[in-house]
Amino acid sequence: MWAKLRRLLRRVSQLHAHLNNWSLSPDNLPSDLDSFRSKVPVTRPEALQTLALFDENPKNSQQIVKFTVQTEHSPPIYLGFTEREISIYAAELAKYWAAIGIKRGDRILLYDYGTSPLVYLASFAFTPHLNRGAAERLGAVAICNDGLPELVDRAIHVVRFVKPRFAFVREEVENPFLGRLASEGVLPDLEESFECVVVSADETIFLKNSNNLPAEFGKLQLTERRLLRIDVARFFALQCPLDSRSFHFSPDLHFVETVDPTTLKPLPSGEEGAIVVTPIFILAQPVLRYMSNLIGSIEWDCCRCGSKQPRLLF
Amino acid sequence: MWSQLKNRCVREAEWIDPIEVADPEYLLRLQWRRIKRVLHYAYDNLSFYRERFDSIGLHPADVKNLDDFSRIPLLSKLDLIAETKSRQSFSIGIEAFNKRPPFNVVMTSGTHGFHTFAAVGRAELTRGAMRAVLREFWMQKIRPGMSVMTLSPAWHFLSLLDSRALTAIGARCVSPFGTHTPRFAERFLDAVVNLRPEYVLTIPPVLYAMLSVCERRGIEPREAFASVRYVSAVGEAVTPRLRQKLRDQLGLDDFFERGGSSDGLWGGGECSRHNGHHVFADLFYVEIVDPVTNQRLGPGERGTIVVTNLVLGKSLYIRFNCEDLGSIATDVCECGRTHPRVEIFDRLDNQIQVNGREITVYDIRACLDEIDQLCGRSFFVVKQRNGGFRIDVYDPDDTLHNVSSEARAALLKRFGLDAEFRGIRSMPARWKGRLVDERQVAIGEGYPGE
Fold it and tell me: Given this model, what pLDDT does residue B15 score?
């Protein structure tokens, strides 16, 4: 991890030396992980808002697609990607889709806005300059319904006629969607097909688990999973199937740590604090030590579900 | 061949696909060849069309020319709805994929209270109708490296084509959070101000909502849109007067329109001459027919738009009645393009009859836009119980009374329509530019939450 992080820091110091947010210069780089955690201050959303105008930097002209972070920030935060970065990000989403069980030929309903990472990483059809989305990587078909709560009828319409095996829904529409699904007569036809609802939100933890699904689902064995996102850090974590408080994440592309939310001092592994994430694959608009508003701890031991991936524990 | 053209597109600032300026006679021959291929493919491979053709005793071999083709019964949205309900599936036997699974499924806008589906193959997004959008974007001045703000409702067919065409051109894209409803106008305007795109792809209601945000924030639209050189708006006809007003108000080099329909998977855009939407004849065959008799109408005559897709690899629509009112022009455009141009006026159900003459809400809009104080002002037409009509105009400042008699006289003179005007302080977004029944207005349907 340190080798990857060092490469990122070197690039950042070369590309963005004019930005003093992180006080980095090529001659003044941290020498190891500990010094990285102590030398580089955490980044809060306010700092990123000033970085939003990255286009001032002519070296950043390779940023070819920009999205706005969904969480309400004023002024808004914009995320810029190069073609390579958005491709890596989509591959990361595909890993989580595969972990949920999505495979070739599956149809997936996306009940979210076209500008949510759930959707814009899903298919090359949805996003300019994305050559292979998560759906193409797995051979699945992604169908988007937009994220407005009043479009719940149309989402049910898709369930009824397209018969997806999975539905990814934004948190805001979870209740209307599940409520309508339970009350609609669509369910008897779906026993063979519809399998799982994945609810997702940016920097929000909601520990309700599948036991809370409406009883009216009857014979339909519908499971519910949560996909945590930290959009600013281009990060995903998937709820463990056996422990609703655990969220597995892939450590390949992010350095994840915790800090004391008050003093901002780095905490040892396993101690509860604010979750801080550094995406190591983002160079065009790098984010170093992004401090999310999530409080939890990081567990590295093997999970009882069998996964060897580390997990965030809330 | 296509990749060579694409490379040229990126290199040459004034690139034009050679087929755009092909001899009209050649285009007609090309269309006829493709129509025959589509008919044979549909009969041999697509269960929906085979049953349909068999039921009327038609074999593709019987269709010997375009006149024969124009006698094939129109396919309506209601036919598609009935088939979707009967099969309980999005797949209704019109998907021309050579038995491969679809690459994507998109929904239509839900007229008749039911969303039909259209399946799209990968080739459609890389070679098929994507070519039409690529030509359209180029025609409308999108260039490599240009920063383009695009609102991407990924459920809509056009958005998929836009994404791929912007990629092919090499434009840089800005996609603010939200979707195509005025409620996100604040964020869209923020993105215009902060990220300074040169080009904005949008729909008119969202653009008008952004202008309202400018007004609320006390910013001059010209200042907020300082970086924007072009706007291209899709989904609603904009009158010439309103286009000019928007150009002036936003300080644009040009304002373009695009149009078409996700039912039928077709579309076209205006060139800088604003003479109608160029519909690429190698990809679509468009006819205008009489809404009552279904007889084909000539250039310049107003009727229902009927479309046939000429390439496979997607849901195939043959003589699909789009339920839009339009007219076609077949002469060569001043820009040099030889493909037909279609002017789209309004939805078929958005017109009224006055003294035996059909008038669309767009016609009323065009008439009212001639009056400065009413140009671009939102309104809807109320069909009253007594058979008359009233125009409800958005009037937050109570200024309508200054011009209502002038507006009434203009409508009377132009169409023989004697309509009362009423100013209102709020208006449901979905009623804007629509014909609404008085009973809906009386119960205030549509107002809460808008």
Answer: 67
- In chain A, which residues have their Cβ closer than 8 Å to the Cβ of B150? 128
Residue A147 to chain B, least CA–CA distance (Å): 8
- Residue of chain A whose Cα is closest to the Cα of B450: A150
Total domains in the fold of chain A: 1
List the one residue out of A102, A104, A105, B192 whose CA is nearest residue A118: A102
Q: What is the pLDDT of residues B237-278, one digit of tens each?
A: 899 999 999 999 999 999 999 988 888 899 999 999 999 999
Evaluate if residue B96 carries a pLDDT over 90: yes
Instruction: Give the dihedral sign, CA B296/B300/B306/B307.
Output: positive
Q: b/e map of B196-215 (b: 16 or more CB within 10 Å)?
A: bbbbbbbbbbbbbbbbebbe
Determine the Cα–Cα distance for residues B88 and B251; give it in Å rounded to an integer. 50
Lowest-pLDDT range of A17-21, A308-312, B230-234, B261-265: A17-21
Q: Report CB contact under 8 Å: B105, A147.
A: no
pLDDT tens, residue by residue, B190-201: 999 988 999 999
Question: How many CB pairs (< 8 A) connect A and B?
Answer: 135
Give pLDDT, residue B111: 79
Compare CB distances from A65 to B103, B173, B179 and report the shortest one's residue.
B173
Cβ separation B125–A67 shorter than 8 A = no
Give the range of the structural domain holding residue A11, as residue numbers without chain letter: 2-313
Q: Domain B351-442 belongs to what topology?
A: GMP Synthetase; Chain A, domain 3 (3.30.300)
Q: Determine the residue among B97, B104, B174 to mutate to test chain A binding: the one whose Cβ has the most chain A Cβ atoms within 10 Å.
A: B104
B213 CB within 8 Å of a chain A CB: no
Token pair listed for A12 = 């950042």
Compute the distance between CA of residue B75 and CA of residue B55 in angstroms, rounded to an integer: 14
CA–CA distances in Å: residue B399 to residues B209, B211, B245, B394, B419 = 20, 19, 19, 10, 18
Contact A231, A266 (CB under 8 A): no
B112 CB within 8 Å of a chain A CB: no
Query: Any CB–CB contact under 8 A between B314 and chain A?
Result: no
Q: Is the ipTM of this complex over 0.95?
A: no
Within 8 A by CB and 6+ apart from A177, the residues are A111, A152, A155, A156, A167, A169, A197
Retrieve residue B316's tokens.
Answer: 């195939």
- Containing B435, the helix (H) or strand (E) segment is strand B435-437
Residues of A in contact with B110 (CB under 8 A): 154
Mark yes or no for CB contact A141/B159 under 8 Å. no
**Rg (Cα) of chain A, in Å, rounded?**
20
Give the integer Cα–Cα distance in Å for A202 and B9.
39
| CA separation for the pair A272, A258 (Å, rounded) | 7
* CATH code for position A197: 3.40.50.12780
pLDDT class for B425, splitting at 50, 70, 90?
A: confident
B191–A78 C-beta distance less than 8 A: yes
Q: How far apart are CA B441 and CA B89, in angstroms?
A: 36
Q: Per the CB < 8 Å rule, is B152 touching A126?
A: yes
Closest CA to B320 of B97, B118, B37: B118
Give me the sign of the Cα torsion angle B211, B240, B202, A153: positive
Give CA–CA dist B68/B323, Å, rounded. 22
- Chain B hits for A75, Cβ within 8 Å: 190, 194
Residues in chain A within 8 Å Cβ distance of B112 = none
